[in-house]
């Protein structure tokens, strides 16, 4: 229980008064490792390229989710809301709601995306709420996405059950984050990666997440490793911006050692 409490408290500070989105690590925009498709050697990157990599991760998720113009979309763990705004502007759902546990993040999302909110009345909104008790009625969303937030969810089974509940029959759940590749991998990663050691990240095995989806009634559509497009680019950015010792440079090492990877997982709620 102490680890859970400590990790939750650290996350609350990190995303609250700490405003992680303002960090150079994330170029002051999105909060994810990024999806990198071209030359990522240190010294060749700039802030715009880093921001683009993070937007591209959202685009990869949204393309796989196959969002339609009449869809209602929920993002769980929306942070400062720039991903939800991108989804609205580039993929055109009828409406999208960004949900976040942090009051501070919801306030930032509303402030940062004020122009988009004004230009699209009723189509974009932000709300405070837990991934384990999503504050919406049953069967109201066509799609649910979560981009690099599920590594903070202590109860993935609870999240999956809630996602299933709020989705309409035929609805899609798309999750992008990092998972371990074996049951005992987290134990080996704790000495290497600070955020796993201190409980900020509660990274789970990919097989256990897939099993949780199936137990909750989802049909698994795809489990895709995208580590080749994530870890080296993120490591190059850390080198270039002087984060050699912050958050550890061991993410790439752990991936190369086969202990963790980054995945996009797509599941579908069966139609009635």
From TrEMBL:
Instruction: Provide this UniProt record's keywords sorted from A to Z.
Output: Methyltransferase, Transferase
Domain of life, source organism: Bacteria
UniProt keyword annotation of Membrane present: no
The biological processes this protein is annotated with in GO are: methylation
What would you give as a GO molecular function for this chain, any one? methyltransferase activity
CDD domains named among the record's database cross-references? AdoMet_MTases
Leading EC class: transferase
Q: Report the residue ranges that make up the Methyltransferase type domain in this protein.
A: 74-174
- Look up the EC number in the record and give it: 2.1.1.-
Q: Which PANTHER family match?
A: GERANYL DIPHOSPHATE 2-C-METHYLTRANSFERASE (PTHR44068:SF11), ZGC:194242 (PTHR44068)
- Name-wise, this protein is Class I SAM-dependent methyltransferase
């Amino acid at each position: 229980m102490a680890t859970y409490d400590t990790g939750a408290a650290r996350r609350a500070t990190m995303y609250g008064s700490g405003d992680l989105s303002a960090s150079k690590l994330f170029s002051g925009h999105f909060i994810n490792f990024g999806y990198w498709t071209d030359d990522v050697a240190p010294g060749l990157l700039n802030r715009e390229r880093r921001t683009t990599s993070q937007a591209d991760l959202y685009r990869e998720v949204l393309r796989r989710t196959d969002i339609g113009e009449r869809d209602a979309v929920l993002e769980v763990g929306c942070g400062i809301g720039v991903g939800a705004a991108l989804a609205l502007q580039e993929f055109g759902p009828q409406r999208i709601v960004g949900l976040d546990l942090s009051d501070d993040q919801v306030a930032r999302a509303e402030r940062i995306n004020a122009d988009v909110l004004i230009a699209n009345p009723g189509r974009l909104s932000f709300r405070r709420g837990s991934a384990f008790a999503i504050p919406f009625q049953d069967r109201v969303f066509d799609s649910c996405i979560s981009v690099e937030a599920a590594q903070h969810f202590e109860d993935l089974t609870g999240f999956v059950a809630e996602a299933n509940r709020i989705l309409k029959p035929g609805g899609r759940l798309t999750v992008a984050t990092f998972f371990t590749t074996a049951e005992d991998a987290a134990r080996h990663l704790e000495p290497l990666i600070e955020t796993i050691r201190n409980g900020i990240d509660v990274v789970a095995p990919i097989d256990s997440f897939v099993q949780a989806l199936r137990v909750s009634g989802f049909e698994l559509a795809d489990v895709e490793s995208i580590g080749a497009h994530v870890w080296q680019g993120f490591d190059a950015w850390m080198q270039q911006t002087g984060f050699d010792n912050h958050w550890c440079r061991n993410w790439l090492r752990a991936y190369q050692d086969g202990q963790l990877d980054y995945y996009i997982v797509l599941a579908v709620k069966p139609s009635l």
